[in-house]
Design goal:
- The complex is a heterodimer.
- Chain A is mainly α.
- Chain A has 14 helices and 2 strands.
- In chain A, helix 1 crosses helix 14, helix 3 packs antiparallel against helix 11 and helix 3 crosses helix 13.
- The longest helix of chain A is centred in the first third of the chain and has 32 residues.
- The two termini of chain A are about 35 Å apart.
- By secondary structure, chain B is of the alpha/beta class.
- Chain B has 2 domains: about 170 residues, Periplasmic binding protein-like II (D-Maltodextrin-Binding Protein, domain 2); about 220 residues, Periplasmic binding protein-like II (D-Maltodextrin-Binding Protein, domain 2), CATH 3.40.190.
- The longest helix of chain B is centred in the N-terminal third of the chain and has 22 residues.
- The chains are: A mainly alpha, B alpha/beta.
- At the A-B interface, helix 1, helix 6 and helix 13 of A face helix 1, helix 3, helix 11, helix 18 and helix 19 of B.
- Chain B: It comes from Thermocrispum agreste.
Amino acid sequence: MGGRAAGYLLLAPFLVVFAVFGLLPMLFTAWVSLHDWHLLDGPRSFTGTGNYLRLLSDWRFYNALGNTVSIFLLSTVVQLLAALGLAALLNRPLRAATWWRAGVLLPNVVSVVAVALVFGQLFGDTSGTVNAVLQSLGLDPVDWHGDRLAAHLAVSVMVIWRWTGYNALLYLAAMQSIPQERYDAAALDGASRWRAFWSITVPGIRPTILFTVVISTIGGLQLFTEPQLFDPLGTAGTGGTDRQFQTLVMYLYERGFTDYDAGYAAAVAWAVVAVSGIVVLVNFGLVRRMVARS
Amino acid sequence: MSAPLRISRLAAALLLVLVLSCGCSGESGTIRLTLATFGEFGYRELVETFERENPGITVVTRVTDFDSHHKALATALGTGRGAPDVVAIEEQYLPSMRQAADKFVDLSTFGADKLRSRWAEWKWAGGLAGDRVIGLGTDMGGLAMCYRRDLFAAAGLPTDREAVARLWPTWRAFAGVAEQFAASAPDGVHFTDSAANVFQSMVSQLDHNYFATDGSYVAGRNERLKQAFTLAGLLGARGHTAKVQPFTQEWSTAIRSGKVATVSCPSWMLALIRNAAGPHGEGRWDIATVPGGTGNRGGSYLAIPAQTKHARQAYRLAEWLTAPEQQRRSFLTTGLLPSCPEVYRDPAIRSRRDEYFSNAPVGKIYAAAADKLRPTFRGVDDAKVRPRFDAALGRIEEGALGVPEAFREAVEQGREALEGG
């Protein structure tokens, strides 16, 4: 009993912070989503599921969902594979290892606004560096903001650049806990480095891989700052002239803070929660299967 | 049993700490006012003067970009916290703020209603919400057309501003000049910045645009709106635009590198061009009359959110900043067109020239036309609909849509944006 009380006490700071800044806002958002709620005027009428029904027949919502998933897949797959490779390189004996390991985290600590400014110049449609290089090679310039796939790629590059190093460090930490004997044994059996990597390293860090998949999933589904700032119009933009790269949270932002429709924006927020929930359940299933296997 | 109770007590204590730590401001005796604006109002020097003349008040200025500024204000008003003491509101956002008039201090309680004669009549009326005074006018957005003398010369066009103005009495003529320019323009130089910028200037010359005065959405039926859209859209479709929007990084780059020959120029745009083009642009840019003669595009008001704790001092600041003398100084430093007849009719203002813009007679071009300015009617939801039309023009520039389809799409998406709210 005493031990349990101490446990609660130790947890209390987190629970309080979570309740005040996590749970209450979420419940309030749910309450808002059941109303016709003007951002400035406040609630106008109770509409029940009205906002959700409208959401289900809103093509802009599906557009945003599609973009979010597309950017998420493009960025996460490349990002995690690159992180894996990077971690494997960092895990080998290196001169100035600490310097390299800290270095890969640099992109992550640079302010995202600065990142967006730099990538905005790289992927400028008319005066961008990437297009200048393409043209000097005799290729056609790419309409980075107008073409849907090109825009998704550009945003993904930004995300990949920011998060690869972070994930690599997580992988590296996990790799260092794999016993060296396994590699020695594999080497005796004549396994190549490549084979050892896939048969020892990757299975050895599986829980970490799953963790990063879950974290990138949540981050990917909530993607906002990078694509919003990628729009030349900044906070006024809706992800391109035809919503080519508008993500779910950007759509939420548009409805809530440009159109002042807080009720609808709240419904979008809960839709994001629902989508995240589904993906997390899928991940949970994967975790269980993996635990059973090992 | 007792754990949840303890948690809720802890939560209460934490909340209390949070509230207390946010509530206090400044050291005792001095009052700290925040003044939030967007873009360039030229208030930094003015505020220093104000602080000297009003010991005991310090003013913190906060400048963000146009959209973030208004979004932050909406959020602060919606949540009831975090609004500045004095805030600038641009005219296209004013109708939606007017709907939430009770979120602002009624300035007539401090005697603002007696100041009415300071401003041009329509400017004063714009700051009213029923019988409440919620905004005091700052600047107006008189229209002109900025152009690059050197690029015009290179394309074989006249460079003298009188002669240039004669080239484009109408927007149709302006489009004709675009063709002429393109025929012999230097490589990579576009006639104007964007279809949307041209469109917004044209629209601000109409008496109403997306909404009729009864508030109904008439974009699909407004022939003159459609004509403006078509003309601007064709400029984009025919490649006369550099596809860059003011207030963006790419716009600044295009202006700085001399890729744009004209920019339709409300008075507040002068500061943007000067900042973007830098010293290199001095003497290359010039200002001529806008096609269609005049027009009002933009201009702002200062308002005081009702959540302020220092309404009286905030009013003193807002009243002082919008007074004729300060508007005069603001015009001289930033080129913002005053909304006080006493100032814009002043011969000293009318004879003002701007060295940067090839010594253009900005007093004559902007101030002399100020009396003739008529605001275009702004519906409550103007700020929701306008971006859809700008985006559709962008689609034309990207080559994704033809002009008629783009107009239909803009009208339809505007309607969707309205139904959403």
